[in-house]
Amino acid sequence: MGDNDLGYSRIEASIWKDKVFPAVGSIFCYNEMNDTYVRFCKGEMDLRFLGIDPGIAIVGFGFVDKIGSKVTPVQYGCIQTEAHTPEEERLLHVYEGMVQLIDKYKPDAVALEKLFFNRNVTTAMSVSQARGVMVLAAAQKGLPIAEYTPMQIKQAIVGYGKAEKRQVQEMVKMFLRLQVIPKPDDVADALAVAVCHAHSYTLNSKLNEVLRK
Question: Which of 12, 186, 189, 209 is catalytic?
Fold first, then answer.
């Protein structure tokens, strides 16, 4: 799959282990901005959140800034791993990709969508392992980690826990003032997690203020 297939710019080439194995994946970013803008925003904003849609083939990620009551997109995209490569290589790529993104965009907290599987046990195991290395990457940086169920995310974004995926995507597009809904769906899902956490953080902060009085 080439860079233009999804409209993403490649910011990280491939991960190699001991410079022997072939490439196992890439990181793609949708929102093209320079480092100067990223650093300026980080200095002027209240909090920055990283939302993650866990996966082994595609990991969606989305960084948003919460400036007062306003939520603004910073960067969003996906980490992709190549199929038919050793699982440990794919997990290494996900982990190192997540570390790179955290180091570059410096979030204050991380939020993930909680995993639910009904059928495919093999897929569940692979995605759970990938989720584990993402949590590890965040924990090593000392970042607080939150989890939200799909219903909680839909409730926060749309106001209805059983909303359709398209409704959630449209609301994310509107909230973040995007021109189009990010693709693949994993990216839009990750932004939804980030927005959900931004809203939940605001509510929890206000509740804590009331309880302290």
Answer: 186
